[in-house]
Amino acid sequence: MSKVSKNPRRHFLKEKEARKLFLDFSQRLKVDAQRLFGSKPRVEVNETEVAEIFIIDGKPLLARSDKALFPTLAFDDVFPFLPRIVVDMGAVPYVCDGADVMAPGVVSIEGDFKENDFLLVVDERYGKPLMIGVALFNSQAMKNLKQGKIVKNVHHVGDKIWKALREI
Question: Which of 82, 84, 134, 160 has the most CB atoms around its CB within 10 Å?
Fold first, then answer.
C-alpha cells in the first residue's frame, strides 16, 4: 500500500460546506460551478497526507493543499476554461518531475490571465495535460519574457496527488 493512502479519512460534505467549496472554486477560477457540477452534486472529501481531494459525483475533481483549492488533472471538463501554456517536448520530463515552467521551454501562451491565476500546462506534440500551475506574471508580461520561471507547479502528472487520484 502506498504512503499516499495511509489512513485517509473519507466523508461527505454537508450542503453548506459544499456551497462554500463551490463558491471558492467559482471565485478562484472565474467559472460557474453550477454549470460544471449541476445544481445538487454529492461532494465527498478524501483527506490524505498530501491534500484534501474532493470527489464530486464520484469523480476526484478538486484538491486543496496548503489552503489552495485547485482543479485536479482528472477534471478535464474545466480545461476549456483555463488559460493554457504549451511547452516543448524538452520541458516535459522536467514538468512531470515537479519543476516549475521556465520561459525558454514555452512554445505558446493561450488566453488572457492575471498573476496568480491557474493555468493548464500541456505538451506541444499531443496537447496532453501535464500540470496545473499558477501564473507568476500576467499573460502580457509573460509573452515578453525570455528567461526565468513563469509558472509555479501546483499539481503534475505523477505527483502524490496524481497517485492518490488513481487510488480513488
Answer: 82
Residue 17 placed within a domain: yes
Domain residues for 15? 9-76
Grid cell digits, residue 167: 487510488
- What sign has the CA pseudo-torsion 21, 23, 24, 28? positive
Co-location of 36 and 98 in the same domain? no
Name the grid cell of 20: 462554500
Rounded Cα distance between 14 and 36, Å, is 19
Strand order in the sheet with 129-135: 101-102, 149-156, 129-135, 118-123, 84-87, 106-110
CA–CA dist 131, 105 (Å, integer): 14
Cell 505523477 -> residue: 158
Is residue 88 domain-shared with residue 37, that is, in the same domain?
no
Judgement on whether residues 95 and 56 belong to the same structural domain of the protein: no
The DSSP string of 39-64 is SS--EEEEE-SS-EEEEETTEEEEEE
Beta bridge partners of 134: 118, 152
| pTM (2 d.p.) | 0.91
Chunked mean pLDDT (size 10), the chain, 168 residues: 57 95 93 89 94 96 94 96 97 98 98 97 98 98 97 97 91
